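User: Structure tokens for both sequences below?

Assistant:
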Amino acid sequence: MLKFSNMPGMHERQLIRKYENPLFEDNVISEDDLSRARYKDKVEIEDFMNDFQNLVQEAVDFDVTSDPEVVLKLKEQLDKSYEKCAGLAGDQGEIKEMLVRLISAIMKAMWKGVGNDYTARSKLEMEEKARSEHFSLLEHKIVVDMIRPDSIIKEDELVASLLSESEESFNVALQLFHPEQQAALCKLAGEKLGMLEDGHPLRPEYMNKLIQMEMQLKAENSMPL
């Protein structure tokens, strides 16, 4: 029996979702598969740390009088760095905290720069709220793995990956999809579960999530425009 990491990276996480999971066609995972996944996750950490050190230096050298475009670019880089960090293997809590402090420092300078401009302040308020909500979503690894530009979750494995998550992460991940996309996911989930044996021990759990998908979709469609 394979022994997985307590805090795996993206590549190992997907193997964990697949391992002996009837929803996936290729659910047989070998020690070699696990070793390769861990190596890729290790390389990701090394690459991230190299970029992170350079980014920190940029933030340290940050000048509040810099061109606004330069400030925006640095802030976007910090946001993306947090997003990437949230999916790395191991405990990256300290680095995430450091990134939050750096982002806060940039935002403080931006707040000072807009002064009493009501429109500009409203935009900053909305941005900070959106960032806070986004970072909360990133606490769920399935969300991190799905939204990455280089996500390894294949399109034909999306439904299986979602259904394999905890109920909390599953419900959070559904928020990323529009009603039309949710309808397509419901159809695919129904088809996939239809191929699962009635007596399979995991069938009730998966069926319950399908029901949740259908109820959420119904609620979305009944909301007034």
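Moving on to the next sequence.
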Amino acid sequence: MTNEQSSASDVTASHDVNGRFATLVFERKVAAPVSTLWQAWTAPAARAVWASPSPSVTVEFLEADTRVGGREVTLCKAQGQPDIRCESGWLALEPALRSVNYEVISSEETTQSAALITSTFTELGEQSKVVVTVQLSSLAVDMEGGYREGFGAGLDNLTGVAERTMVLQRVIRAPREIVWNAWMNSETLPQWWGPEGFSCRTKRIDLREGGEWVFDMIGPDGTVFPNHHLYGEVRAHERFGYQLLWGENGPKHADAWASFEDEGAFTKVTLGMVFSAAAEFQKAKGFGAVELGLQTLGKLDRFIASS
């Protein structure tokens, strides 16, 4: 789906007489379920993929805590220009329905703007829609043009990311600490990881921020599939992000994350993957990646139950 197909025109709802306050409305339709769009919108690993408005801008995440009361802090860096600091705070999160956050933009220790951002999500059959309303207060400079450009490009990126994102979920019949410890443990992870009939042969494993897991997946027929996971942020008992490479130091085929939430006495595990290209996403769906991934989470459930 092209941006022209997926994007509605951005609308300026109102201005004040001095032009320092504006309400901007952005709308995008996405060829993905609303549950997947929500994950792409909120999961820090996914947000890091689509946050940059252009290839010339690098976005560095200093903090990322997607929960009510949590904060996200980023630095936008472009060659020859001062860094732009963006601080956001989550005020409301209603899964697959609505989010509300504040946003403060500053540069060289001067606050440029403040905004209240309300985003609503709607299921449209096999598609979904996000409507983002920005109530903007320009402080040091007029920021409306920058917001139009930055938000428009970011939401176009979000559309592309959501359309190549795969999300798997399962409730594991154990408390969160036990589930986390079964996953982020170099002894136990290789015992259950992979679909039915597959086994792991580990070369190196270091399950911490900045660590890696180099291993082979061995299929029921003996076929060897080399893998390399590179671990980014790790928040104990909550989530971690990682990159999936085709073999040791091979090309990246996905940015991924796993998150862990209490579900009564049990734990809801969400495993998400943003594939590097739409073609890779379609290829993965074609060979049954969803079913194979759910088998993997099923093996985790049985491993914990039998431990």
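User: Anything stand out in the second?

Assistant: The mean pLDDT is 94.
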